[in-house]
Amino acid sequence: MSDKPEKLITDDGLRLDGRRADEIRPMKIEIGVLSRADGSCYLEWGRNKILVGVFGPREAHPRRSQRADTAVIRYKYNMASFSVEDRARPGPSRRSIEISKVSREAFEPVIMAELFPKTAIDIFVEVLQADAGTRTAAINASSVALADAGIPMKGLITSCAFGKIDGKIVLDLNKDEDNYGDADFPVAMTQDGEITLVQMDGHLTPEEIREGLELVKKGCKEILEIQQAVLRKKFETPMGELAEEA
Ligand code: UDP
Fold first, then answer.
1. Which of 64, 105, 138, 157 is 20 to 30 A from 28 in CA distance terms?
2. Residue 201, exposed/middle/buried by CB under 10 A (0-12, 13-18, 19+)?
3. Is 198 exposed, middle or buried (0-12, 13-18, 19+ CB in 10 A)?
4. Ligand 1 within 6 A of 131 CB?
5. SS3 label, residue 166
6. pLDDT per position as a tens digit, 27-43
7. How many CB atoms are located within 10 Å of the residue 246 CB?
């Protein structure tokens, strides 16, 4: 871990990675990267690297996990042991179980699961490299992978955190800001701005939360545009051109 910097915001108002308070880290998305998955996505966001595979709707096993009226949605967040500075212990942890649960719940309002009774929709998240904000990065990647799999959804889910560093509200904390900052507040929302995930680590006043949510709305709008652009490219490309690219 790097040593605690004296300041996280320099005198010219920029953060240590050069961003302004309201800027997200650069994001890059690739779609359809896993040939055995029904839908997949590789996403880089700053130094985060995330791979998502979506499988289904397929018959749910074990059969006792099936529901007669709807598909069950399963979300598994996993950190590769080499993804963090101190090796992450393989297997589920309290943290990964919690992230999986809240992330699944973030998608439940938009996935039209009732169309596929007795099936399962599996979302597998592998964090290959972590630099804070992996749960939000994974949700953004999962949203694209679900669309890639053709899962009917009322819209995309988009996710971004705000936080507080040196007493100032900023968008999308990186690892140093997360380590040495005062608060982190991940959010996920629908395209219409309906919030489907909120978590908070640290202390914030109601006014700071209001200010942060405005930043998050701006960040999510930018991310939604990136998600839509990659999906449009895939689904609007005439079949002939796709064959040529392959
Ligand atoms: N982290 C780590 N080891 C762990 C868990 C997390 O080094 O076992 C790091 C990793 O960079 C992660 C960051 O701490 O992205 C922040 O973790 P947090 O639990 O806040 O979740 P995230 O911000 O990634 O959603």
1. 105
2. middle
3. middle
4. yes
5. coil
6. 999 999 999 999 999 99
7. 5
CA distance 141 to 231: 12
Please count the other Cβ atoms lying within 10 Å of the Cβ belonging to residue 234.
13
Give the residue from 139, 124, 156, 136 showing the smallest Cα distance to 39.
124
Write the ipTM. 0.99
Average pLDDT over residues 154-165: 98
Ligand 1 pocket residue status of 175, Cβ below 6 Å = yes
Residue 120, Ramachandran bin (φ over 0: left; ψ between -120 and 50: alpha; else beta): beta
* Nearest CA, atom 24, ligand 1: 134
The tokens for 19 are 């961003």
Instruction: Determine the straight-line distance between the first and last CA of the chain, rounded to whole angstroms.
Output: 42
**In the numeric block, which tokens belong to residue 213?**
């949510």
- Tens digits of residue pLDDT in 113-147: 999 999 999 999 999 999 999 999 999 999 999 99
User: Beta partners for 138?
Assistant: none
| Residues making up the chain, counted from first to last | 246
Domains observed in the chain: 27-87+94-232 (3.30.230.70)
83 touches 128 (CB < 8 A): yes
